[in-house]
Write a structure and sequence with these properties.
The complex is a heterotrimer. Chain A is mostly helical. Chain A has 13 helices and two strands, in the order αααααβααααβαααα. Chain C folds into two domains: about 160 residues, Rossmann fold (3-Layer(aba) Sandwich), CATH 3.40.50.300; about 80 residues, Rossmann fold (3-Layer(aba) Sandwich). Helix content of chain C is about 35%, strand content about 25%. Classes of the chains: A mainly alpha, B mainly alpha, C alpha/beta.
Chain lengths: ~325, ~300, ~250
């Protein structure tokens, strides 16, 4: 029980710090840190969504960045057409429309690829999710109209009621609020009856099938929810960077998301957020004094895989998690 | 359609297929025997290319460089297996994927430090740099024929290895089963290291062969590894025969799709629509093929019997 | 009255090895029917086909009057077939009560319920506690399943089968690996279920089988060579031959 309470405290402390510190830093003239925090929080939403299928569902998707890319292009493409014409059905500056598109297309992509991926398991699943993500990557590389390899500049940010995304602080607060909601969604789902089946199927699929559950349908549902959430994160990321390119859905990106979930602590509420925090810090600190920051990052990753079980949440709260064949 | 172009593109497709086979065969070998998913397999492909490039400048001859580079990549594979891969055998596939993902970052950065950010072009000796007229009007680069010949020779060698040797027997048995292997009185540690090094050589060879065409470059491994994954998923993970057939299918479909899909589309739609949609569809073609195969055969075309 | 479970001409082979060879078997409602046989007789293969984990090559399985031969595993469970596993296959990362509650939850059709925390649904908890109480594990309800002893794991397997409220319980060697004391408790417990549940019991422990079963079928090399009351089986020549030949 002690571990549980510690986990709760950790969650509250981290989330409170994320609510208070970035605005304070902004007001004290350190706008740079608000930028960093915005990226962190948006990546954390994607990591939280990945945690639903990877941590709680045991589905090791190595293609999650594809949803981020789809979400980002769902903002960029309507803006592009609204500015330069053609394709008027989807031309729009409306944020609600773009977000609906981002979530809808991501969910649809998750449904179609999930139906195929989830027929397989284990190492097949890892490779196939990776391959489908690469398919989306090459699709956008081949679309010259949206800049192909070079990417696309989003001239005008999503127009939303109540918030103005051109204000960095408002964008941050929207992202932060979205993260809280995302965490609550995953927390609620995983504790529900649905979540029990999902976690049961992770532990021993055959057993849960024998109890009478069509686990394929449960997994597919979780996969679609997760994809839709990551697509939403992508829409935010597009608004934050205002520049999108296929690179944001490359497989290295998917690997980084996995890193965040595993490092922070899979199947915990705060783990993915902690993982994103550490990732952003590593990226910033290391890349500030060497362009070769992938070297220490890679070494760290290997060391973590070899020696740190249960992620940071496990380390901090002393809870043990076993992993292995 | 132009038959000469079709012939040349078919040849190019076979060449790509054979290169894919070299990479995919190592992957499937390592997975079949070691039960290990090596994401960093593409890095060995890149190392092969860079080592061959450097040795070409040292020796002044690409072929000598290749012959010298093969044992070097084997040694690199051996060292990686001894230092890092070994500790990951007992872990689940997710840990293996993450660990080797870290390894990619390390190797790519080291390559960056050693060889610099720019790619290295590899010059071919004159006699390989020319073209051959196969029959009237059909001219192909000599070097491409060398790639195809090498690929076929290696494929033949691997088939001999798989079907007629003790090691091959273990592969066919899907010998991730350690008790069985040790019951046969084989030093497992040595066997695993050798298999891994063999996989490294195969990937390295593919990298060397491709270097004179594309140049040795950072990140070249990342592009090929996923296509190689698609190949072994289609072929059936762990199956050498599956890897060979799937590699050729993928190589041909990718190459022919890129050059002829717009012509095909023009038969059923307007020229304009065909020209805008064909590149997008051809970029996705091999993945669509993978999805179709999986929809009907979730374990690939030739799933290994024992697993 | 028709039998609850009726197997006709069931066949299954792996490569050249015939694991189930034209098996015919009927289990009456309310009976405890045991299947015995030497190692490698195909007992577990038979169970796997009954619960849908393996597809038979031929023959038919009917349950409660419905042909279920080609039904997927999860819908057979919905019709009322549950199984326990020879090698404990509980959900080790979940608490003891969650293992049972998941079985209770399965009875209500589907679990596409996303909002309310499963722990706060009192009827799930209550029914799970009743099943745990029946096997004597109620005090360990909130412990992590991994921390239980082997004997307790076997008991929990039974509690899960009980909680699913199935019409037919397929018990695959519930006594495996138990000490003499634990075995005795398990036998007593299974005895207490007699008449209340229909049970198809697969067991190596002959003392247990002869103490519990209403009828016994003997499976040798995938074939049923005899079916009858315990005393008939005890003195059946074919059975003695099969077992003596084995040893």
């Amino acid at each position: 029980m002690g571990t549980l309470r510690k986990k709760g405290t950790l969650t509250i402390v981290v989330m409170a710090a994320l609510a208070i510190l970035p605005p304070i830093l902004l007001w004290s003239g350190q706008a740079f840190y608000l930028d960093l925090a915005t990226r962190l929080v948006i990546l954390a939403i994607a990591a939280v969504s990945l945690n639903l299928i990877l941590g709680y569902g045991g589905m090791a998707s190595f293609g999650h960045a594809a949803f981020i890319g789809i979400g980002a292009y769902a903002v960029g493409i309507p803006v592009y057409h609204n500015t330069y014409g053609e394709f008027e059905i989807i031309a729009s500056y409306s944020g609600l429309f773009q977000i609906a598109l981002a979530v809808g297309i991501s969910a649809l992509f998750a449904l179609i690829t999930g139906m195929i991926c989830l027929r397989t398991k284990g190492v097949y699943f890892i490779m196939i999710t990776m391959a489908f993500a690469q398919m989306v990557f090459y699709l956008f590389v081949s679309l010259d109209i949206y800049g192909g390899d070079d990417g696309l500049v989003i001239d005008i940010r999503s127009e939303l009621p109540l918030v103005n995304l051109d204000s960095p602080l408002q964008l941050y607060l929207l992202a932060y609020g979205s993260l809280v909601v995302a965490m609550l969604i995953v927390r609620t789902i995983t504790r529900s009856q649905f979540g029990m089946v999902l976690q049961g199927a992770k532990g021993n699929n055959e057993r849960v099938v024998t109890l009478g559950y069509n686990t394929y349908a449960y997994r597919l549902t979780a996969y679609v929810i997760s994809g839709a959430m990551a697509g939403y994160a992508g829409a935010l990321l597009g608004n934050f960077t205002t520049f999108i390119s296929p690179e944001m859905m490359g497989w290295t990106r998917s690997g980084e998301l996995m890193f965040m979930v595993i490092l922070g602590g899979a199947a915990t509420t705060i783990g993915p957020v902690l993982g994103s925090l550490v990732f952003i810090v590593i990226e910033e600190v290391f890349s500030s004094f060497t362009i070769y920051w992938h070297l220490p990052f890679g070494i760290m990753l290997i060391i973590i895989v070899l020696y740190v079980r249960g992620g940071l949440v496990g380390l901090i709260t002393g809870g043990k998690k076993k992993r292995g064949k | 359609m132009d038959t000469t172009l079709l012939f040349i593109q078919t040849l190019n497709g076979i060449q790509l297929g054979l290169l894919l086979f070299l990479v995919a065969s190592g992957l499937t070998l390592v997975f079949g025997i070691l039960d290990f998913v090596n994401l960093a397999h593409g890095s060995l492909y890149m190392i092969g290319a860079f080592v061959a490039a450097s040795l070409t400048f040292v020796t002044g001859n690409f072929l000598i460089a290749m012959i010298l580079a093969l044992p070097v990549t084997a040694a690199v594979g051996y060292v990686i297996e001894r230092t890092i891969i070994r500790s990951l055998y007992e872990r689940d596939h997710l840990d293996q994927v993450l660990g080797t993902f870290g390894l990619i970052l390390v190797i790519d950065t080291l390559a960056h430090l050693i060889w610099g950010p720019e790619g290295i072009a590899v010059p071919l000796p004159d006699w390989l740099n020319g073209q051959v007229e196969l029959f009237t009007g059909v001219v192909v680069p000599t070097y491409r024929l060398l790639i195809i010949a090498t690929g076929l020779a290696v494929a033949a060698g691997l088939f001999w290895l798989v079907n007629y040797t003790r090691l091959g027997m273990l592969i066919r048995a899907g010998a991730s089963n350690r008790t069985m292997v040790s019951a046969l009185g084989i030093d497992i540690q040595m066997l695993f290291a050798l298999v891994f090094a063999l996989g490294a050589v195969l990937a390295g060879l593919a990298g060397m062969l491709v270097a004179p065409i594309t140049e040795a470059a950072i990140g070249m491994g990342g592009d090929i590894i996923i296509t190689a994954f698609v190949v072994i998923i289609i072929g059936g993970i762990g199956s050498m025969k599956g890897a060979f057939i799937a590699a050729l299918i993928v190589g041909l479909i990718d190459t022919l799709g890129r050059s002829f899909l717009d012509d095909l589309f023009k038969l059923v739609m307007s020229t304009e629509a065909a020209e805008s949609s064909a590149p997008a569809v051809s970029a996705m073609l091999v993945y669509i093929l993978m999805a179709l195969v999986l929809a009907f055969k979730p374990s690939g075309l030739f799933p290994p019997k024992v697993r | 009255m028709q039998p609850l479970l009726k197997i006709t001409g069931l066949k299954k082979s792996f490569g050249g090895v015939t694991a189930t060879d034209d098996v015919n078997l009927e289990v009456e409602e309310g009976e405890l029917h045991a299947i015995i046989g030497p190692n490698g007789a195909g007992k577990t293969t038979l169970i796997a086909q009954l619960c849908g984990a393996l597809k038979p090559d031929g023959g038919a399985i009917s349950f409660n009057g419905n042909d279920i031969t080609s039904k997927p595993a999860h819908s057979r469970a919905g019709l009322g077939i549950t199984r326990s596993y020879q090698i404990t296959s509980l959900l080790m990362d979940m608490s003891v009560i969650d293992n049972v509650a998941l079985a209770v939850q399965a009875r209500s059709g589907h679990s596409f319920r996303f909002l309310k925390a499963a722990r706060n649904i009192s009827h799930l908890r209550d029914e799970a506690m009743i099943a745990l109480g029946q096997v004597g594990l109620d005090k360990r309800a909130d412990d992590n399943t991994r921390e239980l002893s082997h004997g307790e794991h076997r008991q929990l397997e039974i509690a899960v089968a009980l909680a699913s409220n199935a019409k037919l319980m397929l018990l695959d060697e519930p006594m495996a690996g138990l000490g003499p004391e634990e075995s005795k408790t398990m036998i007593e417990f299974l005895k207490s279920l007699k008449g209340k549940r229909t049970i198809l019991l697969i067991e190596h422990d002959m003392d247990a089988v002869f103490a519990l079963a209403d009828r016994i079928s003997v499976l040798v090399y995938g074939r049923i060579i005899a079916t009858g009351a315990p005393d008939e089986i005890r003195f059946n020549d074919d059975v003695r031959h099969a077992y003596l030949g084995e040893e």
